[in-house]
Amino acid sequence: MMQTEDLIMHLPGRPKLDALNWQIQAGQSWGILGPNGSGKTTLLLTLAGLKAPRSGQILLAGQPITGYKTQQRAQKLGLVFQQQQDDFPATVLATALMGRHPYLRSWQTESQADISLAQQALAQMELTALANRSIQTLSGGERQRLALAVLLTQNPDLLLLDEPTNHLDLHHQMAVLELIHQQVSKGKSAVMALHDLNLAARFCSHILLLYPDGQACWGEKNSMLQLPALEKLYHQRLITTQVEGQQLFFPYSPLV
Ligand SMILES: Nc1ncnc2c1ncn2[C@@H]1O[C@H](COP(=O)(O)OP(=O)(O)OP(=O)(O)O)[C@@H](O)[C@H]1O
Question: Which domain of life is it from (predicted)?
Fold first, then answer.
């Protein structure tokens, strides 16, 4: 799906960054873990072709990402940002329909099939009742679910998600990650920046650790979610336990 060749992100003031030689395959869900400022968002923007790397290249479906036209690239990959920018007033349905723009020619209007796809995505995100509301009236969690509905409407092969559970209550966190998991089990790929180790352990097949000093390592989930590596990553003592076969992690703070 995507391959990086000696990729070094452009992070100002960080001369030493590990080069990433990384492969994201169909059916894999990658979690990017790292402390604030370690470069998770920058990496996602770089993978999406929206930020030029310092060096190296990214291949999307075997072709350099720089060679894709914007519309072709948007048919293959979609990105959900941490914050949504709503510069123009629009309804929830009209916003979900933006996910069909990569498939339309200039001035072509959306077909009934496009509208049905957008309505299905809104239903999956439990937003049907809000379809005719202005996006400017949505709560933070509703706006985040709409961003995910746009991605579902877009239906790309590679989903890039910057903290997809941002603003979401516990039910919607699970619903969104289960939906992403379903998409991946149908042959898509996901790369998500996450802060919650337990969600990463539950929903990711692979993990990339980004250390603040510029080191990076990546691999299959069980080999990466090891206490010493995670404690070094977050500069935080952790405890771990297994409940019903699931690995759980907690930050440790001594009782005083
Ligand atoms: N335009 C810029 N100029 C200078 N520094 C920048 C610029 N953009 C980002 N940075 C810095 O690059 C670093 C990486 O930022 P990035 O947003 O990728 O981190 P992150 O791992 O996603 O953080 P968080 O967990 O807080 O969301 C940060 O230290 C940030 O301040």
Answer: Bacteria
d(CA 31, CA 42) in angstroms, rounded, equals 14
Extended beta strands in the chain, E state: 2-8, 20-24, 29-33, 55-60, 63-64, 77-80, 158-162, 189-193, 206-210, 216-220, 238-243, 246-251
Q: Which domains does the chain have, with CATH numbers?
A: 2-251 (3.40.50.300)
pLDDT band at 82 (very low <50, low <70, confident <90, very high): confident
ipTM for the assembly? 0.96
Number of Cα atoms under 13 Å in the Cβ half of residue 44: 26
CA of 36 to the centre of ligand 1 (A): 8
For residues 198-209, give the mean pLDDT: 97
Q: Whose CA is nearest to atom 26 of ligand 1?
A: 36
Measure the CA–CA gap between 216 and 108, rounded to whole angstroms. Answer: 44
Specify the ligand 1 atom closest to the Cα of 39: 18
Looking at 21-35, 106-120, 150-164, which range is the least confident one?
A: 106-120
> How many angstroms separate the alpha carbon of residue 9 from the centre of ligand 1?
11
Predicted confidence at residue 254, as pLDDT, reads: 86
